[in-house]
Design goal:
InterPro entries: Aspartate_Ammonia-Lyase, Fumarase/histidase_N, Fumarase_C_C, Fumarate_lyase_CS, Fumarate_lyase_fam, Fumarate_lyase_N, L-Aspartase-like. It comes from Schumannella soli. By secondary structure, this protein is mainly alpha-helical. The chain folds into three domains: 153 residues, Fumarase C, Chain B, domain 1 (Orthogonal Bundle), CATH 1.10.275; 230 residues, Fumarase/aspartase (Central domain) (Fumarase C, Chain A, domain 2), CATH 1.20.200.10; 57 residues, Ribonucleotide Reductase Protein R1, domain 1. It contains 21 helices and eight strands. The strands form four sheets. A two-stranded antiparallel sheet has the order 1-2. Helix 5 packs across helix 6, helix 12 runs antiparallel to helix 13 and helix 16 runs antiparallel to helix 17. The longest helix has 37 residues. The chain is elongated and about 100 Å long.
Length: 541
């Protein structure tokens, strides 16, 4: 059995299937799954069951699968309207880790077979998309993720109890902590689930990122003979082809694709089995290896146990690494969008080199105005990713002694960045890049009258003559080629040869600037390097 990455979040049990348009990565279903809604249901429930913990007893809505620990979290953390159900990859990852733990505990004789079977059955229901609406605690919480872990334990326990023919809350039959959480602590279960969720999200991002690179590459081939004026510091420089420009966009994405893929093996190093602080207290000494083997079998991913569980339990370095690579990818993608907005500016008084597909009316006051809304939204995604990286950095630094208590905000920040970047890559490809066209006549005229062209003629007519022609071209807006021929300095055929796209751009025609094979080659290079890294065994892409 292996874990495949779903295209979008799963719908709660009992809800109608989501359409493709509704199934958007990272969708926020505030109205049905927000912590405030769950808290309101808790207060207004007419039929309840009573659950108890070390602090006392509370009435719990009879039809809820969550219990008293979740109820206390709903009261304590009314911070954000984003419940953990809004992170379907995290919900699936939690269920997968609990499933692996149940298998390992049964194998070691620490959990009775009928309980392990019921827990596994419950986990599979969650993995199949059921009961996600029961994961109601807020994503941002104190306690290093304990409320998330307990919400998961309670939901699994009550689903399992129903499977056993027992009522919800009958914890004497199957207990959320003693059975579902056996051999575990939040401090090893939660970060392992976060890493698995990030792998899911990263795999999805890599797929969309690759498609975007291929789209830019296709435009590079389409525009390979279209000359344009290159610019440095926003001033005219020397000619290039529009194909080279778009090929450059493709190549910069390939570089980031490689870097993103390199992070996955680091995420596969886990501290599951470390329990509270890395000593493995309350767990069978064989448990860490057993649960690792089960997780590998269930996910198809080569997870490995960290060499130093004390260090792995307190360290958040891998999250900083992933966040930093995401920031790099976002910054470079944003720069591409800056360029697209600039070279498409106009339509009459701007550069006007390319046309972006018109997506919507651009102004409530200026009729006919169309704005570059797709690059603009991608810019804003990049700004958010940059901010999220600052949050992750601060949270990683804030850890103390044997645990980092701020993994909830780390998980929120990175999972949101992964989802938003995935969506950004898709909308940029589908709603913008695939439909870009070139204003070839305008570009040709700009090259013909641009003084930068004379640089290519200098070896033939000399610097002084080139400078004089540049001055004349600037003042008369005449074609450089025509001026050279009219002055009798070169024959037209020779001028055309020197000023051909191939000669001016400095390279042969670019047929296949970037394609899938090139991207796969880059990925393999990343795998080869990752295989030699001291903390990894193999790449998972």
């Amino acid at each position: 059995m292996t874990d495949s990455v779903p295209a979008a979040r799963s719908n709660p049990a009992g809800s109608p299937p989501l359409s493709e348009e509704q199934s958007i990565v990272g969708d926020e279903n505030f109205e049905t799954t927000g912590p405030e809604r769950a808290a309101e249901e808790l207060a207004a429930a007419s039929e309840t069951r009573t659950e108890s913990d070390s602090l006392g007893s509370l009435p719990i809505p009879a039809d809820s699968y969550w219990g008293i620990h979740t109820a206390r979290a709903l009261v304590n953390f009314p911070i954000t309207r984003r419940a953990i159900s809004n992170y379907p990859d995290l919900v699936r990852a939690l269920a997968r880790v609990k499933q692996a733990a149940a298998r390992a505990n049964r194998r070691l004789g620490a959990l009775e077979g009928h309980k392990a079977d019921a827990i596994e059955w419950a986990c599979q229901r969650i993995l199949d998309g059921e009961h996600h609406d029961q994961f109601v605690v807020g994503a941002i919480q104190g306690g290093a993720g304990t409320s998330t872990n307990m919400n998961c334990n309670e939901v699994i326990a009550n689903i399992a109890l129903e499977h056993l023919g027992r009522p919800r809350g009958d914890y004497a039959t199957l207990h959320p902590i003693d059975d579902v959480n056996r051999s575990q602590s939040t401090n090893d279960t939660y970060p392992t689930a976060i890493k698995l969720a990030m792998i899911f999200g990263l795999q999805r991002l890599l797929a969309e990122h690759r498609l975007l690179a291929e789209s830019f590459a296709a435009k590079g081939r389409e525009f390979e003979h279209v000359l344009k004026v290159g610019r440095t510091q926003l001033q005219d420089a020397v000619p290039m082809t529009l194909g080279q420009e778009f090929g450059g966009f493709a190549h910069t994405l390939v570089e980031d694709h490689e870097r993103l893929g390199e992070v996955i093996p680091w995420l596969a190093e886990m501290n599951l089995g470390a329990t509270a602080i890395g000593t493995g207290i309350t767990a069978d000494p064989r448990y860490a290896a057993a649960v690792r083997d089960e997780l590998v079998e269930l996910t198809g991913l080569p997870f490995q146990t960290a060499a130093d569980l004390i260090e792995a339990t307190s360290d958040a370095g891998v999250f900083m690494t992933l966040s930093g690579v995401l920031k790099r990818a976002a910054v470079k993608l944003s720069k591409i969008c800056n360029d697209l907005r600039l070279i498409s500016s106009g339509p009459q008084a701007g550069l006007g080199e390319i046309n972006l597909p018109p997506r919507q009316a651009g102004s409530s006051i200026m009729p006919g105005k169309v704005n570059p809304v797709i690059p603009e939204v991608v810019n804003q995604v990049a700004f958010s990713v940059i901010g999220a990286d600052a949050t992750v950095t601060a949270a990683a630094e804030g850890g103390q002694l044997q645990l980092n208590a701020f993994e909830p905000v780390i998980a929120h920040s990175i999972l949101q960045s992964l989802a938003w970047m995935t969506n950004a890559c898709r909308t940029l490809r589908v709603n913008c890049v695939d439909g870009i066209t070139a204003n070839t006549d305008r570009l040709t005229r700009q090259v013909e009258t641009n003084v930068g062209v004379v640089t290519a003629l200098t070896p033939y007519i000399g610097y002084a003559a080139s400078a004089a022609l540049a001055h004349t071209a600037l003042t008369t807006q005449s074609s450089i080629a025509d001026l050279v021929v009219d002055a009798g300095l070169m024959e037209r055929e020779e001028v055309q040869r020197v000023l051909s796209p191939e000669r001016l751009s400095g390279i042969a025609p670019i047929t296949g600037v970037v394609d899938l094979a090139a991207i796969q080659h880059a990925q393999q290079a990343a795998k080869d390097r990752a295989a030699g890294a001291p903390r990894t065994e193999s790449d998972l892409t």
